[in-house]
Amino acid sequence: MAEIYSQKEKALIAPYVTNVDSDVFVLTNLPDVVKGALFSRYSRSPKTLRRLLLDEFILNAESGFNQIAGQMPAEDSSVAIKKAEEFYDRVLIGYGDDSVAELGGAHVACENVSQIAAKALEDPRIGISPLEKSTRYVIFNEKQGGKYLYYREPSIMAGPHAQLFEETCDMLFDEYSRLLPPITAYLKEKHPKDFDASDRAYDAAIRAKACDTLRVYLPAATQTNVGLFGNGRAFEYLIVKLRSQNLPEMQALAASIHGELTKHIPSFVKRAYGAHGDTQAEFLASQRKALSSIAKETLAAKTSGEKEVTLVSAPPEKDALLSVAASALYSQSDMPEAEVRAQLATQPQEKLIEIVRACVAGRGNRRHKPPRAFETVHYGYDVLGNFGIYRDLQRHRILTQERQLLTTKHGYDTPPILIEAGYEKDYKDAMKKADDAYRVLAKKSPEAAQYVVPFGYKIRWYVKLNLRELFHFAELRTSPQGHADYRRVAYEMYRLAAEKHPNLTAGMTYVNAEQTALERLDAEKRNDEKMRKTKDK
Predict the structure, then answer these.
(1) CB 3.0–4.6 Å: which of 44, 284, 412, 489 could bond 456 by disulfide?
(2) 480: closest CA among 509, 515, 524, 529?
(3) To 5 degrees, how large is the angle CA 454–CA 456–CA 459?
């Protein structure tokens, strides 16, 4: 039963909650530092949240609530806010738990960052949700002040190869821009408009296909915009990780993100610099340096294996079936997990398969997920795909992944459309020039040289994910509207798992191997229908 408040108390609380008389409500119109401190107290107080808000914040002069919440102008607002921040720091510090920093969040925009930096910003597995400017829906041939929008790496621009770097990047953007009209025309000729497609849907699908085809030209220096929503704890660690990087762009981003978050959730990111952040950044940097040194001493300098996808690790199917079956029945029993497993181990394999099938029976669409029992089985993959594929697939959160540096050593992919339209030689010439530039720049710094590598070149990365995530990953990333390149990789990951574990993957009924001419057309038709329904309303 909700606590009863007087009319005066209700009036004070009402602006900050969605209701004053229900057991379920949402906080509104409050700065993150207030919400964070309020929830911190909540965990160690017998009071209800609204009572805490009223007694210890709204009516507590020391808290500086009125100034922080913007309800009452202070004679000296900067002094009042400083005192308020000190109060909230004391409240938060009293709990000594990093999880407290998860109680405050922020939306951060990082604009005009390179693709290399964008991948670093999107690396966090939990706590931060990224959104990046799309190479499918945005044409990347804009200029400002007569210059294409790509990051000019300071150490390169200060060295003897600045002209080579700019000439190579300009050439890549020139080719991208030059080929956009003829590739668009070719696609329209190859795929005439359906009678049931609107001009808007058709043009959008053609444009997406042209951009998908030509993104192989874009160098990793291409500037993009990344939006991040996350909590203070995740941002603090992201800042520290960026600080530990060698590239100046990462260091500058760390300082900028920290500076802006200090204006919004200062109590949650203050440790990113200072003794705590300094030692953590130094540890990460020294760890990476030590491993790099050992790798150079230990591993032979050669490339082995050119398969796009290789299944590196997976348990025998019998063991995997037992793991899933035991975990699935564990919550339906009152026995220890070891006993459940021991009893199921005596059952015939058909019984284990029956249990697994029961977990996925009746799936109506890909959003109907198997239970967490499927998280007990893991698959490891080594993937060698173009950088464009990596950019798309990196965004999955619940998996372990490690990427190598972007180089030109593994060759590049050639989009079939470029071959069909007669531009294969032009493309190969451009890739050769980019390779030449990379090799020159890499002699001084392989890390900085990444910026000149086009999306078409291949990068190697390792992925480990559980069976439940593989359901989500394979069914989402093989859907017809996806980019043909990453659909191919996702399907191969599924195929290799299905080959190894046919009975465990049988429930992946929404994996789609169908080839689609214009990937976005059906999706754009559905958008038309949604817009019509919205207009009718």
Answers:
(1) 412
(2) 515
(3) 90
Helix (H) or strand (E) holding 534: helix 521-536
pLDDT tens readout for residues 468-491: 999 999 999 999 999 999 999 999
Q: How many CB atoms are closer than 10 A to CB 37?
A: 28
pTM (global) more than 0.70: yes
Same domain for 359 and 467, yes or no, is: yes
Contact 46, 9 (CB under 8 A): no
The pair of three-digit structure tokens given for residue 28, joined into one six-digit string? 């509104």
Phi and psi, residue 109, nearest 5°: -105, 125
Tell which residue, 219, 245, 288, has the closest CA to residue 449.
219
Span 418-437, pLDDT tens digits? 999 999 999 999 999 999 99
* Same domain flag for 90 and 65: yes
Same domain, 196 and 250: yes
Long-range contacts of 234-237 (CB under 8 A, 24+ apart): 234/102, 234/124, 234/126, 234/127, 234/128, 235/106, 235/108, 235/127, 235/128, 235/261, 235/265, 235/268, 235/269, 235/272, 236/101, 236/268, 236/269, 236/271, 236/272, 236/277, 237/124, 237/127
C-beta separation of 183 from 421 below 8 A: yes
